[in-house]
Amino acid sequence: MATQQQSPQTNLAKTTPAAMESERIREAIAPTVDVYENENEVLVLADLPGVTQDKLTINFDKGRLTIEGRRSPPQWSPRFAETTLADFRRTFLVPQGIDANQISAELAQGVLQVHLPKLASAKPRRIEVKAS
């Protein structure tokens, strides 16, 4: 989607729930997002009701993950609607140590999951202590 608007960027390494909520309020059509992390990956979950796979684009470039697309309303006249036709774009600064070649995404039942696997060198490892 070609959009002229600049999207605010969220630093995934320094994100707090309060910071994410204030960003969502600033951009009225930004989807809500949760970010989780374990020793193997960073997981981004985005609520995208009404978005289909063909209206969704995900890019990773120079440490930035961008999710953009279009939400289309059903083909009938709504009596009341809080979610209407809307273009959206969210950009996240991704922490170092992500394996860009292994990033994957899936969209199911209005929820997008973006998996950002960590490089082996970025994962915690246990150091063996040798007795002498």
If you had to describe this structure to a student in words, what would you say it looks like?
With 132 residues, the protein is mostly beta strands. It has a single domain, classed as Immunoglobulin-like. 8% of the residues lie in helices and 37% in strands. Strand 2 (33-37) and strand 3 form a beta hairpin.
What's a concise summary of this model?
The protein has 132 residues and is mostly beta strands. The protein contains one helix and eight strands, in the order βαβββββββ.
Question: Helix- and strand-based class?
Answer: mainly beta
Which shape, going by the Cα principal axes? elongated
Summed up, the helix count is 1
Which architecture per CATH? Answer: Sandwich
Instruction: State the CATH class.
Output: Mainly Beta
Low-confidence stretches: 21-28
Describe the biggest sheet? 4 strands, mixed
Strand order of the largest sheet: 1-6-5-4
Subunit organisation of the chains: single chain
- Beta-strand residue percentage: 35-45%
Element-by-element helix/strand order: EHEEEEEEE
How far the N terminus sits from the C terminus, by CA atoms, comes to 62 Å
What's the Cα radius of gyration?
18 Å
Number of domains: 1
